Amino acid sequence: SIQACLFDLDGVLVDTAKYHYLAWKRLAEELGFVFTEQDNERLKGVSRTASLEILLEIGGIKLDDAAKQELAERKNNWYVESITSMDETEILPGALEFLKECRSNGLKVALGSASKNAMLILNNTGLTPYFDAIIDGTKTAAAKPDPEVFVLGAKEVGVPTENCVVFEDAEAGIEAAVRAGMRSVGIGSPDTLSRANLVVPSLQQMSVSRLAEL
Ligand code: G6P
Ligand code: MG
């Protein structure tokens, strides 16, 4: 049975996936190539440095480490600009209700995000108090699809991996859940999230009773 729910942040609980995309797209434009929404699927859930590597590969650009560092910083500054003014209106439909339902049913709730900006987002949207454990990009060494972020989350809430379910909007995140030995719910389209046990358009379609379908 499911005893813990592990949530990705960007694109699952909050509407920040669009800000990440806009910032990467802007960077690609400055570098002189087009970066499509389809290209962006490969970046979802992936750490900042790993995302930049993929972006540069798409653009066919080779750079040294110092130049890469500068570009990653430039992207992050634009991104942080978009999220500093965020508030609870940018919580995605159904997310808050489902978090509350999980807690009132005695399920453990953990965050499993690659983002180093997670605390800023959680605090700005008022979501911080809903988590028993918060694992973000400041606490992990390996990026999704490595399972580390979810394995650490399960450990911190004291639930065996086979009793955990991961909520993810990214292919890399579903893959991380599979490698962690966890079940997964994809948030988005079944086309991109085919490996998830269940795919729903948003957390609005999710409820504790539906966890029995997994
Ligand atoms: C999330 C997003 C990614 C982002 C990563 C790192 O997983 O889905 O698009 O690249 O976090 O975020 P950060 O805020 O640290 O750049
Ligand atoms: Mg995500």
TrEMBL record:
The record marks 113, 144 as: Important for catalytic activity and assists the phosphoryl transfer reaction to Asp8 by balancing charge and orienting the reacting groups. Binds 2 magnesium ions per subunit. CDD domains: HAD_BPGM (cd02598). Gene3D superfamilies: HAD superfamily/HAD-like, Putative phosphatase, domain 2. Substrate binds at residues 8-10, 24, 43-48, 51, 75, 113-117, 144. Mg(2+) binds at residues 8, 10, 168-169. It is an enzyme of class 5 (isomerase). Belongs to the HAD-like hydrolase superfamily. CbbY/CbbZ/Gph/YieH family. This is Beta-phosphoglucomutase. It comes from Paenibacillus zeisoli.
